[in-house]
Design a protein that fits this description.
This protein has one helix and nine strands. It has one helix at 2-19; strands at residues 28-36, 44-50, 57-66, 69-86, 89-104, 107-115, 118-125, 128-143, 147-162. The two termini are 27 Å apart.
């Protein structure tokens, strides 16, 4: 899994270098390592991309597999606040949703919920962005038994390439 994530990051680096000549950045691709901060659930690799038709929207697809467990998740966040703090450091906040499906011990769990991503991003070399994010969440566990509300905190750090 680590080798696959490193390979994806290298591919995006090379692709980003070729596209860095553009002056306006409306699209992004990247990768992240995400983790359930409050539950200590294992990390997962996340593929990130923006939707240029909807400004300030960032979509993430995460995957984790180990032994007899499998997790697949998707997030979609709209950044309603984005500002420069100082120099290369920016702050963003948004609102979004996530959905997840997990399979473990012959059971399937299905979750849907909302999230509030809060992140710091640094553009060391444009179009390369490094970021760290936390996202408090409220969600419903649909299966195996319905339970609402549930609360969690998701975290991620990674890299995005803007073009």
């Amino acid at each position: 899994m680590k080798r696959s994530l490193i390979f994806l990051i290298l591919v995006f680096c090379i692709a980003g270098m070729g596209l860095s000549a553009r002056s306006s950045y409306s699209k992004a691709v990247g990768g992240a390592f995400s983790y359930g901060l409050d539950t200590g659930t294992g990390g997962s690799g996340t593929f990130l991309f923006s939707i240029p038709q909807v400004p300030f929207t960032m979509v993430g697809v995460s995957l984790r597999s180990s032994g007899d467990s499998f997790n697949l998740g998707i997030t979609d966040d709209y950044w309603f606040y984005h500002d420069n703090l100082t120099g290369i450091l920016n702050l963003y906040m948004g609102i979004g949703f996530y959905g997840g499906i997990a399979s473990y011990d012959n059971e399937v769990a299905l979750d849907f919920g909302g999230r509030v991503p809060i992140g710091l991003q640094a553009f060391l070399l444009k179009p390369l962005e490094l970021f760290i994010e936390i996202a408090p969440t409220a969600y419903a566990n649909i299966t195996p038994t319905f339970s609402f509300p549930q609360f969690s905190v998701q975290g991620a750090f990674g890299v995005r390439f803007w073009f």
